[in-house]
Amino acid sequence: MSADRIVSFRIAREKVSALDSLARSVDRDRTFLLNEAVETYLARQRRFVELVEEGLKASERGELIDDEEVGARIDSWIRKAPAEKKRTRARV
């Protein structure tokens, strides 16, 4: 007996059309893409939960940073982002 389950849900017609178009362009079927999308979503959500739990534990240990440090870190990420984009562009 298969461990797979059938799940159905409502989705806008336009999204189904876009999904089918993408599936054709990558030579896959709709089910493959939906399974890939669900796995990606679940992995991201699991990682988010891990980070929240890590933050809560750090908080319990008193490892906190003030709002000025948070702002400084965000600013450094923003300044760093354009440089990273330049390095990751494909060369033609």
Beta-strand percentage range:
under 5%
Helix percentage range:
over 70%
Mean pLDDT: 90
**Any idea what the radius of gyration is?**
21 Å
Layout of strands and helices, then pairs:
Blueprint lengths: L12 H13 L4 H31 L6 H22 L4
Quick recap of the structure?
This protein has 92 residues and is mostly helical. The chain has helices at 13-25, 30-60, 67-88.
What are its keywords?
mainly alpha, 92 residues, flat, 0% strand, 3 helices
Write up what this structure looks like.
The protein starts with 12 loop residues before the first helix and ends with a helix. The chain contains three helices and no strands. It has 92 residues and is mainly alpha-helical.
